[in-house]
Amino acid sequence: MLNATFLESFTTLCETGHFTQAAARLNMTQPGVSQHLKKLEQQVGQALISRHGKGFTLTPAGEAMFNLGLSRRAEEKRLRHAITADDRDAGPLHIACSGSFAMLLYPQLLPWMRAAPELSVHLEAAPQAEILAGVLRGDFDLGVLGADPDHPRLEARYLGREELCLILPAAAAETPVTFADLQTRGFIAHPDGYAYADDLLRLNFPQDYPGADRLRLRGSVNQIGQIPAAVAEGIGYTLLPRSGVEVFADRARLCVTPLPKRRWHDLWLVMRRGRHLSARARHAQGIIEAAAGQLR
After folding, report:
1. Which CATH number fits the domain that encloses residue 30?
2. Tell me, what CATH number does 235's domain have?
3. How many angstroms separate the CA atoms of 221 and 98, rounded?
4. Domain limits for position 220
5. Cα dihedral sign for 265, 266, 270, 274?
6. Which residue, 41, 83, 224, 278, is the most exposed by fewest CB within 10 angstroms?
7. 68 and 197 housed in the same domain
8. What are phi and psi of 240, to 5 degrees?
9. Using CA atoms, how far apart are residues 188 and 26, in angstroms rounded to an integer?
10. 22-72 pLDDT tens trace
């Protein structure tokens, strides 16, 4: 490994073209600069300069060494900037949450992204277990979970809660709903839908609900933004957190049907314990909290 101090002395010597001036800039003696040059030449096994009286010219090895010295300076400058700079509007940011909350959150992030061209926001819709594992690994700066993970390596902040909703076509708004009615309509299923059914439908129709595997299906889709589309067209019913309903483009064609017993899912903002959050992540926290506040 080249000695960094010797390399810096040589780079300064090349810039000034004079031993005395290089010594003054480096706050050294002229013999000290000469000694650094000699030791650097010993390290590479080649002469770096050709002396001409009081002046000198660079050998081919010296030119290569000078370029390396300039490059090392630039790298060190970038490193120092990366270590000390904490620009809210520049650099990468990774967030993970449920698909329904992502639909609510992403539009809230877009104005910030538009105003900050050097910012790179990565929002991933993922299952709860994947979010938890990703935050623990450091893949995500921030995650939004449906429960306090109660993990020794994580910090969790309660954001609020959102209601789990039974979604019917808007035309059904004034009609009392029974489980038989739902079976007649048929379920528009999605990856989380069966767990939602076991949660909400079993709570409200305990005598009739046979389990998610016995629901009559009208269709299924795994694209969160498309789940309410069939219901808006009068086909079937579905179950979604409120965040997945409120951002649907044809919201007016949907009805959130009131049930005797309501169910809410908590929202928790999680991050690795003891990790210094960047200015980007701290700003994103505020945006996430504001998005969750819309669900109250």
Report:
1. 1.10.10.10
2. 3.40.190.10
3. 16
4. 163-264
5. negative
6. 83
7. no
8. -150, 150
9. 74
10. 999 999 999 999 999 999 999 999 999 999 887 899 999 999 999 999 999
